[in-house]
Amino acid sequence: MISDFAALRIIGWPWAGEPEDPAWRDAMGAHPQARPARVVEQHRSGYMVAEGPGEGFTVESLPEWQRPAGYRKGSSSAEQRAAVGDWVLLEGERIVALLPRRSAIKRGAAGEHYKQQVIAANIDTVLVVCGLDGDFNPRRIERYLLLVHGGGAQPVVVLTKADKDDSDVQAAVAALVGVAGQAVPVFAVNAKDRDSVAALQPWLQAGMTAVLVGSSGAGKSTLTNTLLGAEKMKTADVRESDARGRHTTTHRALIPLPSGACLIDTPGMRELKPTGEEDLAEGGFADIEALAEQCRFRDCRHEREPGCAVRAAIQGETLDSQRFANYLKLRDEVAGAADRLATRLAQKGDAKVQGKAPGKRTDDRRGRH
Ligand SMILES: Nc1nc2c(ncn2[C@@H]2O[C@H](COP(=O)(O)OP(=O)(O)OP(=O)(O)O)[C@@H](O)[C@H]2O)c(=O)[nH]1
Ligand SMILES: [Zn+2]
């Protein structure tokens, strides 16, 4: 099957032609009649995919992805099913294989049963968008960075509205010192201005895929329009009083940019919850974890204990108390999710043992003969 790699490239195919990754070559070699396509929307019953810019089309998913929720035996976990951004192989209008995932943004979905959801796959860049107006919130940025960390995508903090008179860029950047400590670039921009936004180009190269996260009114649509170089998405005028825009983002799942990169817009990105696998030290709080190691007591809770290095740092104003409060809050959330994840894995283990039981009995019977 000859694929149109130029068309695929526009929607984020990572190579100029045939895949350079041996695992991808093997997967494609196993289905010589199939052609690659990218998942742009996930539905209950199937998927919308695209083979290039323009309209997507619905396809049938692999039978093992269609089993109803709760079907245990042999059911594939959500992680093995295709998600938005995944590359799949098609034969006709049918998915025959999932190509190896290069990165994933996951979310823990709390509920009766712990579930993990892949919100977007094969993302190179996560633009964490936050306005420098009343929307500015370093805690929210820390949260996004923690949740995105470890998934294989590079986060880039984009502070919009730097052109506004009431925006204090220096104070904002200073408030992000803990963030800047990790390898996360921070840019203050006017999202309406093309030259200002040009600084983001290294993270939006041909074949790359980016997503934008940030609260309503942060400037995601404005930034998208400027990157597109055209007024393609509707933006609402922000209500000055509460710095929130109305919800007007037109849903378009996959947006090719003139730079050669493409943007994925998927509703799941709007609400990120920890999966329980996050690492607070790696995910942006290395400074606090290092401080905690200097406390006199190993199990210091950083409350009233003597010799507490964390409280000393807060008093000495080398650690922001709000940043520390956010760290504690996120640590609790991650621990809660980790507990639910452990319970879920234990339940799965039980189900497997039960599933194997009949086979064991047969062996026992044989043994008795
Ligand atoms: N002056 C200035 N205004 C901006 C900038 N970025 C966004 N705005 C304005 O802020 C308002 C909200 O921006 P949007 O782009 O709609 O925000 P959004 O993040 O897409 O919001 P949702 O669609 O609700 O998620 C609009 O009135 C924009 O014109 C900026 O860098 N400078
Ligand atoms: Zn302590």
Automatic annotation (TrEMBL):
The gene is rsgA. The keyword Amino-acid biosynthesis does not apply. It comes from Luteimonas notoginsengisoli. One of several proteins that assist in the late maturation steps of the functional core of the 30S ribosomal subunit. Helps release RbfA from mature subunits. May play a role in the assembly of ribosomal proteins into the subunit. Circularly permuted GTPase that catalyzes slow GTP hydrolysis, GTPase activity is stimulated by the 30S ribosomal subunit. Signal peptide: none annotated. Residues 344-369 are annotated as: Disordered. This is Small ribosomal subunit biogenesis GTPase RsgA. Zn(2+) binds at residues 295, 300, 302, 308. It is found in: Cytoplasm. Residues 360-369 have a biased composition (Basic and acidic residues). Residues 115-272 form the CP-type G domain. Residues 121-270 form the EngC GTPase domain.
